[in-house]
Amino acid sequence: MSAKGDMYYAWSTDADLLAKGECGGAVSSLLKFALESKMVDAVLAVKKGADIYDAVPTLITNPEEIAQTAGSLHCGTLLLSKLFKKYLNGARDMKIAVTLKGCDVMGMYELAKRQQINLDNVYMIGLNCGGSVSPVSARKMIAEKFGVDPDTVIKEEIDKGQFIIETAEGHKGIKMDELEEEGYGRRSNCRRCKMKVPRQADLACGNWGVIGDKAGKATFVEVCSEKGAALLDAATKAGKLATEAPNPKGIEIRGKVESAMLKLGDSWRAKDFASLGEGSARLKKIVEETSRCIKCYQCIENCPICYCVECSTKKPYLVKPGEVPPNFMFHLIRFAHISDSCINCGQCQELCAMDIPNSLFMHALQVDLQEMFGFVPGVDMTLPVLALVEENEERARLAGTGSDQIFNIFKTE
Ligand code: FAD
Ligand code: SF4
Ligand code: SF4
Ligand code: SF4
Ligand code: SF4
Question: The pTM is what?
Fold first, then answer.
């Protein structure tokens, strides 16, 4: 029996998944087994759409369709957690296995503690994550830095610090550091991200630490919960997955790479946050940047912390309707409601119609609040700082109505 903390090299025993998988197809095999054995009713995974820049979230109930989702898409900047809330009734009425990067898992926890997802019904297959590149900047980078037509790229990968593309002519890689120094590369939130191995998932899977003859052909799996152990053991026992003990040198390398990535995250944080200035200079910058806002609501629609049925930004007594740009109160509301729990997923920036660096602003505030109050979002079920002002009956009302309003100061009766 596996237990929390156990580590394996794992790969698929299915020839198709072994070939199609990013690193031996262990994750695809786990997902397929979970469906076949009826441990879950459905799988939420990601498949390639029109091209490698088009990552499509897909709900699968037929195990034979799992092979369509094998492989990693680094130019897909999705956040899967919000989809549970929006389209899957928070996994309240079906058991779902899902592949989740660090930010995805963090979003799952923040939604779960707001009673928007039932984590008991979810198998969280975590994926280690060095970062993702926005489809728009990936195309630009491939054209300008690689001198390659982005439409001719068959596959991309991020390996050993390089962004590598594959075309009919072969492979070409450029160091990520070099790309990022010139303004290309990973999304800015990914550069600042420090959730590299998502151990709050049930399993954490990735290629770091797989060395020797298994390099590229197996996935390094860390067991992170009893649920994860049960899934891994059952799939292995059923002969769907092969495992072996990881090379001790591989474990050491994985630890070193993770530490190096965390340090890199810290240095990007220092650089990005310094660019905002401090105190009133920072506030002035935020006011100036957000003055481009056209109130398209994408930041709210896609933020995993924004879950309210009645959003305060739509209350006419707080934000005057029909005004573009909206009064700064629009953004202040979001800062007040979200900043303690922001998971730096980048969605509010990536999808902002006016390219406002919303995620940078919110993340900078979150890090300051974390220093002040010690609350770390996305890692467990601890309630956020703002929850401290709520009374028990208010929490029940919040759960019942989905409303964010803690005290209705405008109540007339
Ligand atoms: P497969 O059997 O190929 O299954 C991969 C699964 O990932 C599929 O189910 C697919 O739906 C899902 N998936 C693909 N793209 C996404 C996406 N964008 N978001 C969510 N799910 C997705 N490992 C490391 O050790 N270091 C890294 O730096 C690292 N960076 C990664 C960055 C990204 C964006 C992704 C998606 C993965 C990254 N991984 C990293 C994990 C690694 O690439 C493999 O996914 C992992 O080793 C499992 O390989 P496999 O062959 O078992 O998976
Ligand atoms: Fe990966 Fe972190 Fe970027 Fe999410 S925010 S895609 S976990 S690097
Ligand atoms: Fe993600 Fe932006 Fe919401 Fe933070 S504020 S959790 S970066 S969408
Ligand atoms: Fe987000 Fe606040 Fe609106 Fe709720 S009320 S959706 S937390 S901005
Ligand atoms: Fe304004 Fe950008 Fe949010 Fe749209 S996504 S409402 S433009 S800040």
Answer: 0.94
Note the pLDDT of residue 392.
66
**Ligand 5 centroid – CA 268 distance (Å):** 24
Nearest Cα residue to 273 out of 188, 345, 187, 348 = 188
Distance from Cα 403 to the centre of ligand 4, integer Å: 9
Per-residue pLDDT of 354-397, as tens digits, reads 999 999 999 999 999 999 889 999 999 998 876 555 556 666 76
Assess contact for 187 and 132: CB atoms under 8 A: yes
- Does 409 map to a domain? no
Q: Whose CA is nearest to atom 5 of ligand 2?
A: 190
Instruction: Clarify whether residues 204 and 313 are in a common domain.
Output: no
Whole-angstrom Cα distance, residue 308 to residue 319?
A: 16
Say how many Å lie between the CA of residue 138 and the centre of ligand 4.
31
Inter-residue contact 42 to 91 (CB < 8 Å): no
Dump pLDDT digits (tens) for 249-278: 999 999 999 999 999 999 999 999 999 999
CA distances from 197 to 128, 133, 207, 295, 379 (A): 5, 18, 11, 35, 12
Same domain, 160 and 80: no
The number of domains in the chain is 3
Distances (CA, A) of 223 to 217, 232, 318, 335, 380: 19, 8, 47, 36, 16
